[in-house]
Amino acid sequence: MNDSVIISDSTKRFRVVGTRPIRPDGIPKVTGRALYGADLKLPGMIYGKILRSPHAHARILSIDTSKAVALKGVKAVITAADLPEQKNEFIGPERVAVNFWHVTRNILAREKALYEGHAIAAVAAASASIAEEAVALIKVEYEVLPHVIDVDAAMAPDAPLLFEDMITRGVEPAPAKASNISKRLAFEMGDLAAGFAAADVVIERDFKTAAVHQAYIEPHACVAKVEADGQGEIWSSSQGHFQMRALTAQILGVKIGDLRVTPAEIGGGFGGKTVTYLEPVAALLSKKAGLPVRLQMTRDEVFKATGPTSGSSMWAKVGVTKDGKIVAADAVFKFQAGAFPGSPVMNACLCAYSPYDIPNARAVGYDVVSNRPKSAAYRAPGSPIGHFAVESVIDMCAKAIGMDPLDLRIKNVARIGTPTIAGPKHAHAGFAETLQALRNHPGYKAPLGPNQGRGVACGYWFNGGGESSATLQVNADGTVLVATGSPDIGGSRASMAIMAAETLGVDYNTVRAIVADTGSVGYTHVTGGSRVTFATGTAVVNATRTVVTDLIRRAAMIWDVDPEGVVWEDGYAKPAGSNVGDFKPLSLKELAAKAAATGGPITASAGVNAGGQAPGFAAQFCDLEVDPETGRVTILRFVAAQDVGRAIHPSYVEGQIQGGVVQGIGWALNEEYIYNAKGLLDNAGFLDYRCPVASDLPMIETILVEVPNPTHPYGAKGVGEANICPPMAAIAAAIEQATGKRMTELPMSPPRLLAALSA
Amino acid sequence: MIGDAPARVVFTSGFSKRYTNGVREFEVKAKNLRGMIRAMDTLFPGLGEHLEEETTVAINGELHETGYFQPVPAGAEVFFIPKIEGG
């Protein structure tokens, strides 16, 4: 069922773009035949298992693997001592700086176990049960240390230190004393004091959010086969097989060219499968055993040892005039990084105010380590967290001045030329149109019943571009193969085939799109950042255009005319200019049949570093009902508007929006990591970690607002992430309308809400 | 923009503190980012590598990875900001 409304400001019409064909990976997936990371079985394959820390924080005094090695059926045992040491330095851009000294310690612990589930050693054996038995025979001597879980507690001067020598970066002069604060950063524009002085109403609040997991259905899994000469192959489920290859090569200290990585189908990632946990371990076990090794996580391991997004502690303050102009905003974001530095706090700083024209603003962020699994990217990493705080206070300001919260946002909307706190001015339109589309929705003014409330919030995400590759081949029968390096998580194969078909002017069913391995297509950055339809799509269109030029050249050769006298229209080479009427148009199929005679295989590749991506803006409202007896919240209606540029395949755009909203509802109402007094995770499974399921939810209504991006051949904008930013604040606002209580801590679960109602 | 007006180059305060003695704004004449990076590297030796490795660039608000080939229109506003990665 599709409830989406498409609002487009473009009169341009396409024959394939904007249609809803069946995705090429649909039938294998619904029939259970698609091959995921754990499905591959190679001849002679053996099974890996990882020993994990039972402690939140402990010094590793010794590891004795002798009994495991001696067990019959065990083929290899490794610890961190088998991995090369890495330099202790941050490399790469500040926002995503990587310190491989940390990365290798997250893959296999060295001096200390820093969280429950931290990998200590790994075994490969003839069967999974022997591997489990062997892991239990590894004797680890720990010195248990005091632990710290909460971000505010981790920042306290007397907190147990994860790294005794970590000095906060971004503070001048540098602190003399080590702490758990890895980094401080600050962004500011305008005159904050003057801005707040001009405000008629100033509201500030503290907020807390819980660490939440991406909760992809498929646990991490891979198979690795490394030969004696060091050449290796890896099959794994990830958001970027080129990324897995690069990270594995770095961790193992081998050449990138010695590894070939083939992507499996992926059962969800949402950012959490952009980092590696298993591939280097499986490869090393395989090398040592001389046999292929499969390594896969249990759900318990996924929760305890892979990265959720950060929990946070925040403060936000907003000033407005009585006629609704936001004149100043200030916020402090303290993010849990997990056991190693690297939370997405910078994104929270850069995104929180970006939907609006706020002349005076400041955002301060702290990246803080604690005894939790290292945080990983999760859908618009950092942005939903910051938006929860700032959007909540904006909503409170609207209520304080008696203004409709959507009208207040319309009054302050960012437009082309509005400065952002990072410095650049907005270069793309779309948010004003999105807000107006939501405002015009008939449900926005519909009456509400007792214990019901309506809330509004907005969100912003940069969207991504960058490096992508595509190769196009025309087969002898005129069918077309499009190969890209982007793992398909949200239906991108269908979108790639649509864009190639549109460019060629042929039927969608003529084109088959695949995800090729690292040896079969050029480098392509991860499927993340809402970049694939934009960047990889641009590569596909460029490669297709090159093929079209080649087809024109071949038709000209057949007709013995100049290529300038040939045009490509609707899937045919047609004579043009003085040649019109002289020749019968040649179809793609006819030209493909003449490929050998006209120069050989018809194929082209394109590599791009795509820039000019337009950001994503989302605006949403929800209606809900609170049960005052239990504190349970029922979502009655959820309407999500988003500027999508142009929907290449509208069903998958709607799916992205609906998925983001549902995850946001989970953040808002139920999802959280619950630790006990020993620093151990108490809810490492889907029975106790409560994700929303279909029976919890109404159909999420989508409004696709099409303000095309002029820098993409068909106007596409990234659509995967901005939609997860608003739900938490929208739900908090609706709960306040329903109950009179403003919730400032996530999740707003029944016990927490009931406690607030009883207070 | 008209003629060969120089571009206005802006860094974040953190970046400028690290690499340009706290100076955040410069005027640079260049046809493309390669020329701009070279010019900045002449002023602050080693800066070019940091720009290439650590930043995303916004040219008149349009975000790009910091590549040599990006044209810089006359009078453009060029912000070097921290590189962005998504989920």
In short:
The complex is a heterodimer of chains A (759) and B (87). With 759 residues, chain A is an alpha+beta fold. Chain A is built from 19 helices and 27 strands.
Low-confidence stretches of chain A: none
Enumerate how many helices of chain B there are, as a single number: 3
The name of the CATH architecture of chain B is: Roll
Please indicate the percent range of residues of chain B in DSSP E strands (runs of 2 or more). Answer: 25-35%
Shape of chain A: globular
Shape of chain B: globular
Task: Characterize the biggest β-sheet of chain B.
Answer: 5 strands, mixed
**Helix- and strand-based class of chain B?**
alpha+beta
Number of domains of chain B: 1
**CATH fold name of the largest domain in chain A:** Aldehyde Oxidoreductase, domain 4
Counting copies of identical and different chains, the oligomeric state is heterodimer
Report the uncertain regions of chain B. none
> CATH-wise, what's the superfamily of chain B?
Beta-grasp domain
What composes the largest sheet of chain A? 7 strands, mixed
Mean pLDDT of chain B: 85
Beta-strand fraction estimate of chain A: 15-25%
Strand order of the largest sheet of chain B: 2-1-5-3-4
- Using the coordinates above, name the CATH class of the largest domain in chain A: Alpha Beta
Find the count of extended strands of chain B (DSSP E, 2+ residues): 5
Q: End-to-end span of chain B in angstroms?
A: 37 Å
Cα separation of the termini of chain A = 42 Å
